[in-house]
Amino acid sequence: MIKSAPLKSLYTFIAVAETGSMVLAAEQLSISHSAVSQSIKALELQLNTPLFNRIGRRVELNPVGERYYKRIAPAMAEILAASQEASNTANEPAYLTLNMVNSLALHWWIPRVADFQRISPNSDIRISNLVGEFDLEREGIDAAIIHGQPDKWQKYHCEKLADDQLILVCNPQLLVGLNKDELTAQNLLQRFKAIYVTNPRRQNDWQTWCEANNLAQPKQHNNLTFNISVQATQAAMRQLGVLVTHKQFVRDDIKHGMLTQIGQSIVNPHQQFYFATSHAMLNHPQVSALRAWLKREFLRTANE
């Protein structure tokens, strides 16, 4: 009874058969020439038959070797493919980390989680809230929704999702009792205090919006200047004043009547929304599903 040939010998046999040289096979397998020669001799001894004809420094399969190669080469290819697939699956992250600013996570992502789960039930997305510039790989981020400019993310795959729109909002209750002629941005800025956000990514919102609408920028008031957008949005909902903010951050608040938009939106020339991921992750199944859904969702909401 012939014992099973060791896989190591079979790998070596296939390499020699395909290169026609024990020297080239040794280079391909990163082993010594003598190791290749010994492995082939051991396989031939075990099978009790020669597999190659030696022609100088070259070798070629004899008829027995030809038949043997045709039988085992496809099987070895299947073993390699199955091993690679198992390795890839084992190395895939159990979940993806998606980075976005906190305001977008709270007011845009969370209201849409159920829809994403319906579209991609096998995906598991964890949210990170790093701000500014950062290295995706070093921070363990698989993908990011960037609110800014793409020039700082040139080492990654980066594609535009949507323009950033600035709007003036307030609690609808502030407008109760006002007639149509009084519902202008200029009039409301005279009636109500302006709510400001001072962090570097938001500090120019009022200036940009006022310049686009040919209005004087309102002054800041005590207790109505906040460091983050979430706080400023809550202040607007509490009827403390009017706020210039980013439409994507408050779209659902407007939809549910917690805020109302005054006047028309303007395109923010300083920031847009982009999807970014490493080139290595671009074709990852979960990243591909997330990317396709984000593009559709941003396009849909932009047309609302």
Describe the overall structure.
- With 304 residues, the chain is of the alpha/beta class.
- The protein is built from 12 helices and 10 strands.
- The chain has helices spanning 7-19, 22-29, 33-47, 63-91, 102-109, 113-119, 136-139, 185-191, 205-212, 229-237, 247-255, 285-302; strands at 52-55, 58-61, 96-99, 125-128, 143-148, 157-170, 194-197, 220-226, 242-246, 260-277.
- Strands 4-3-5-10-6-9-7-8 form an 8-stranded mixed beta sheet, sandwiched between helices.
- Helix 9 links the parallel strand 7 (194-197) and strand 8 (220-226).
- Helix 1 crosses helix 3 (33-47), helix 1 (7-19) crosses helix 4 and helix 5 (102-109) runs parallel beside helix 11.
- The protein is rod-shaped and about 100 Å long.
Question: What's a quick, concise take on this entry?
Answer:
It contains twelve helices and ten strands. It is 44% helix and 23% strand.
**Shape descriptor:** rod-shaped
Report the C-alpha radius of gyration, rounded.
32 Å
SSE order in H/E notation?
HHHEEHEHHEHEEHEHEHEHEH
What's the average pLDDT?
87
| CATH top level assignment of the largest domain | Alpha Beta
Give the end-to-end Cα distance, rounded to a whole number of Å.
Answer: 75 Å
Main pleated sheet: 8 strands, mixed
- What is the domain tally? 2
CATH topology of the largest domain: D-Maltodextrin-Binding Protein, domain 2
Instruction: Point out poorly predicted stretches.
Output: none
Strand order of the largest sheet: 4-3-5-10-6-9-7-8
Beta fraction? 15-25%
Report the structural category. Answer: alpha/beta
The number of distinct β-strands equals: 10
